Amino acid sequence: MAAKGKSTVSRFFGFKLHLVVNDKGEIIQFQLSQANVDDREPLKNKRFHEKIFGKLFADRGYISQNLFDMLFVDNIHLITGLKKNMKNALMLIHDKIILRKRAIIETINDQLKNICQIEHTRHRCFTNFITNLISGLIAYNLMPKKLSINLDIVELINLN
What we know:
By secondary structure, the protein is an alpha+beta fold. The chain has one domain (3-159). It is 38% helix and 21% strand. The protein has helices at 41-44, 46-49, 65-73, 93-100, 104-114, 126-141, 151-159; strands at 3-6, 11-21, 27-34, 54-58, 76-80. The strands form two sheets. It has a three-stranded antiparallel sheet, with no helix packed on it. Strand 2 (11-21) and strand 3 form a beta hairpin. The longest helix is centred in the last third of the chain and has 16 residues, at 126-141. 7% of the residues are buried. The mean pLDDT is 77.
């Protein structure tokens, strides 16, 4: 079931965990895929994004006009940064500020790996792997303090 994948740093063997997190740092939706699956594939699955609405902030790896159009029909506004060779697009200042805060997801991933210990390579069977993953996600959701974005401050900055 595991597959060879490639990240910006190196190659690896295993799975990818796709997360959707709200502004309070709570995990809304997650999906597990093989390492060689494109990052945009889970968003193309209607069951994965049926509980998501509003604005979805993502990194540059999710840039795709087809994906944007498909999500927009389902009332999801996909907002990503621009690649260096892309033309500048008009964006609301509110969205631009929140897009800068997107790095919080990297910290959440780090907490899942180090505090909740979901990155583990010594499982002997798939059941143990899934049990460890689900228990780590539950442990993260039960943490009293999670990283969050204070949207009130973003609103005030937008007014000035």
